[in-house]
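Posted in: Protein Modeling Q&A

I'm a second-year student putting together a small comparison for a lab meeting, and my supervisor asked me to include a predicted structure for Endoribonuclease YbeY. I've never done this before, so apologies if this is the wrong subforum. The sequence is pasted below exactly as I got it from our records. If anyone can share the structure token output, I'd also love a short note on what stands out.
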Amino acid sequence: MKLSLSLQQSFESATLPLKRAYLKKVIETTLRYIDVDEDCEIGIACVDHDESHRLNLEYRQKDKATNVLSFPSDIPEEVVALLDALPIGDLVICIPVVLTEAQEQNKTPIEHFSHMLVHGVLHLMGYDHETSEADAEQMEAIEIAILAKLGFDNPYIS
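Accepted answer (user: helix_wrangler)
Welcome! Here is the predicted structure, written out as tokens:
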């Protein structure tokens, strides 16, 4: 599998230096774990509080900033078949929210950011935790396993 990554960083943080190689490692580990073996494309935007708030209000009707927003690709299957790589979609990650949550949850910034990246990629691939308790448990178990492969503890244990 080859991963094409588009990265937009309109917000950067000294406590969370994001390198393309690291992002690709986390995303590729996630995709391999769920048995995606074809070439893929993904876009990631690291944004500030205001941009996250605006997008969350516009697309989810929630009047607050959030840690990660997932925008799955909606390209028709017949078009996807003509492409060299599967367009997965785009993630918008609010760095200030991730940093605040990491502190509140007694996690390192990179630990929580990695969890949000895995979580977002799983959403792009159709996983959901809001429909049913069984779906939430399945998604959490997958996240725990992927994060363990990356050397992180279970994010759901305080």
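A couple of things worth pointing out for your meeting: The longest helix spans residues 133-149. The domain at 3-149 is CATH 3.40.390.30 (Collagenase (Catalytic Domain)).
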